[in-house]
Amino acid sequence: MGFEKDVDIIERIDKKICMRNTGRPDELADQLGISPSWLYEILNVMKTMGADIVYDNIAKTYYYAQEGCFNFRFVEKK
Q1: Are 55 and 46 in contact (CB under 8 A)?
Q2: DSSP code string of 5-65
Q3: Whether residue 4 has pLDDT greater than 70
Q4: If one looks up domain 3-63 in CATH, what number appears?
Q5: How far is CA 43 from CA 18, 48, 49, 76, 78, in A?
Q6: How many Å is the Cα radius of gyration of the chain?
Q7: Among 54, 65, 46, which Cα is nearest to 7's?
Q8: By CB neighbour count within 10 A (0-12 exposed, 13-18 middle, 19+ buried), where does 29 fall?
Q9: What SS3 class is residue 3?
Q10: Which residues are bridge partners to 53 per DSSP?
Q11: What pLDDT is recorded for position 14?
């Protein structure tokens, strides 16, 4: 996958994590159109970038242990 596609997937995962609406890993991977193994790779990348991602077995969703979000957009300096 190309960088832009990876960023898009991270942004989609981030949005679902923020809403605490990811579902099980296999469901999330299916929604994103990727394999579960690729999902785990991306989650590991997100973790190395500082995201403390946790899975709640009861609620069946990922969440951030600390509030935050990803932002990959260009911002003009003022």
Answers
A1: no
A2: HHHHHHHHHHHHHHTT---SHHHHHHHHTS-HHHHHHHHHHHHHTT--EEEETTTTEEEES
A3: yes
A4: 1.10.10
A5: 14, 9, 10, 29, 33
A6: 13
A7: 46
A8: buried
A9: helix
A10: 64
A11: 96
Per-residue pLDDT, 1: 54
Task: Read off the tokens for 66.
Answer: 């600390």
Angle at 5 between CA 48 and CA 47, to 5 degrees: 10
For the chain, the structural domain boundaries read: 3-63
- pLDDT above 80 (res 48): yes
Cα separation, 53 vs 40, whole angstroms: 11
